[in-house]
């Protein structure tokens, strides 16, 4: 699973509890995209989460 290069956000793990209270292991995946980003004037491909894209922490190439 990919991690965000900006905020280091990745997958989260826990236990899902059903209505009958049966517990199973669960993985919540974060919304991470592979995008071209400007780094020091040059275009570079990175994994960035959509929260960082929307907040303007990253400038697309």
UniProtKB/TrEMBL annotation:
- Is the keyword Ribonucleoprotein assigned to this protein? yes
Q: Give UniProt keywords alphabetically.
A: Ribonucleoprotein, Ribosomal protein
Gene Ontology biological process terms in this record: translation
Instruction: Specify the domain of life of the species encoding this protein.
Output: Bacteria
One GO cellular component term: ribosome
Q: Where is the signal peptide?
A: none
Q: Does the keyword Lipoprotein apply?
A: no
Record GO terms (molecular function): structural constituent of ribosome
Q: Name one Pfam family in it.
A: Ribosomal_L28
Member of which family?
Belongs to the bacterial ribosomal protein bL28 family.
**Known HAMAP family for this protein?**
Ribosomal_bL28
Mind telling me what this protein is named? Large ribosomal subunit protein bL28
Give the species: Anaeromicropila herbilytica
Q: Which gene encodes it?
A: rpmB
């Amino acid at each position: 699973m990919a991690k965000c290069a900006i905020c280091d956000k990745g997958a989260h793990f826990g236990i899902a509890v059903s209505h009958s209270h049966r517990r199973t292991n669960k993985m919540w995946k974060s919304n991470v995209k592979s995008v071209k980003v400007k780094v020091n004037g040059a275009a570079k491909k990175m994994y960035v989460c959509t929260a960082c894209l929307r907040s303007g922490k990253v400038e697309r190439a």
